């Protein structure tokens, strides 16, 4: 299984290879109460043809583990919001990259001229990023098999994996899964597997980030 640090290095290298495309307008990058760096942003149509997602790839440069909340807005030609959607991440480790997104129904944003968003964060003690190892393997059917393993002595309540898929440098799909072996929980010493991009036929690169959180005090700290 790949070490956790090899995943971090791979993600950092991938970020430098892409620039945002298919975005209707540059979104508001201001954040409150935290220092979050925006690495890329994309408007991506879902495979079902019914939804689109505004996807932001960001980095936690606060120096602390944080929880993040996001509000995404579709704006009309006059700059007024016509639809608002929301997202959250329970725990992002200091220095790590993460993905936030707003999912819109296509018929609700038919008149949208641009999109904007607001990210805000606060410190948290629930981050369990280092407790989890992630292994990514591409199958013969072209989906990504994501195996998460909990190496800590305590259960991890939630491991959320998010990925953006690219073809010739352009984003073609987004997918997200939760990894656990008992509901959303991945128990101590256990592994769980999920697939990303199960309906995607053609891509040549991808960016994957994950968050791991728990409200359980680590056994090692007792």
Query: Could you give the order of the helices and strands?
Result: HEEEEEEEEEEEEE
Rg over alpha carbons: 17 Å
State the shape: globular
Main beta-sheet strand count, sense and barrel state: 4 strands, mixed
Average per-residue pLDDT, rounded, comes to 83
In spatial order, strands of the major sheet run: 1-7-4-5
Level of helix content? under 10%
Q: Strand-residue fraction?
A: over 45%
Number of strands: 13
What class, by secondary structure content?
A: mainly beta
Q: What's the total helix number?
A: 1
Cα end-to-end separation: 29 Å
Oligomer: single chain
**Unreliable sequence segments:** 1-31
Task: Please explain how this structure is put together.
The structure is a single chain. By secondary structure, the protein is mostly beta strands. The protein contains one helix and 13 strands. The strands form four sheets. It has a four-stranded mixed beta sheet with strand order 1-7-4-5, with no helix packed on it. The radius of gyration is 17 Å and the shape is globular. It starts with a helix and ends in a 9-residue tail after the last strand.
